[in-house]
Design brief:
Helix content: 10-25%
CATH architecture of the largest domain: 3-Layer(aba) Sandwich
Order of helices and strands: EEEEEEHEEEEEHEEHEE
CATH topology of the largest domain: Trna Endonuclease, Chain: A, domain 1
Radius of gyration: 18 Å
CATH class of the largest domain: Alpha Beta
Shape: globular
Structural class: alpha+beta
Mean pLDDT: 95
Number of helices: 3
Length: 228
């Protein structure tokens, strides 16, 4: 995924989930935050950020906040991008041989899952989660409780009983992490649901990403640890 109109800036504060005060070209601006998660360890005063300038003059906010440096690690925090990263990856790889059909935002039972795929006789449901939290080399999800995430997992488990293949895929929006794990301290019930889903046949995948100021692409598989 390639972005355009990228500008470098500095983070000041985040008064609510949706906006941030930033400095670009020496001026203070109000910026849209494209991630409603906490991101507390990332969005700290003085952090170097990259934003995209909008070409829409009618918008209330001129910029979208896309990525932030945590030390030397650049982390993409655009919560809308993991689905596109996944789609570019499956279209450009042979992970699902014979892939012939891709439908985003597929309604199944009580959930709108991110993708329904067909590959030969295979019917595949995939739910994508973007991961922006890193602690001591571990990529963790979620950074805030997610009852919706548990509902998605429950429906993926049910899909197994109806002959679907089901995948829960974590797109880690950074590079060079040691492993991925469900964040038990933030939401134990979600972590337990992930482990239960794996036991019931849901396939777990974690992919890190190459991140630059103006791009993000899928990288390599990352080890998943679902235990304590």
């Amino acid at each position: 995924m390639q972005y355009d109109n990228i500008r470098r800036g500095q983070f000041i504060s985040r008064p609510n989930r949706f906006i941030a005060h930033i400095i670009v070209d020496g001026r203070e601006e109000i910026c849209h935050v494209k991630n409603t998660g906490r991101c507390r360890e990332l969005l700290v005063p003085g952090a170097t950020i990259f934003v995209r300038e909008s070409s829409n003059d009618k918008r209330k906010t001129k910029f979208d906040l896309l990525s932030v440096y945590k030390g030397e690690r650049l982390v993409n925090i655009d919560s809308q991008i993991p689905n596109q990263v996944f789609r570019e990856w499956i279209e450009g790889s042979n992970y699902f041989p014979g892939l012939s059909y891709i439908k985003p935002e597929y309604t199944y039972r009580n959930s709108r899952l991110d993708y329904y795929l067909e590959a030969g006789e295979r019917r595949i449901l995939a739910e994508i989660k973007g991961v922006t939290l890193e602690k001591e080399g571990a990529a963790l999800f979620p950074d805030a409780p997610t009852e919706r995430g548990i509902k998605h997992i429950n429906d993926l488990c049910h899909a197994i009983t109806e002959g679907y293949e089901a995948y829960l895929i974590f797109i880690i929006q950074m590079k060079n992490v040691l492993y991925f794990a469900p964040h038990r301290e933030t939401h134990l019930a979600f972590a337990e649901a992930v482990a239960r889903a794996a036991d019931q046949g849901v396939q777990l995948l974690a992919l890190d990403c190459y991140v630059t100021a103006d791009s993000i692409t899928a990288g390599d598989f990352v080890e998943i640890r679902t235990g304590d």
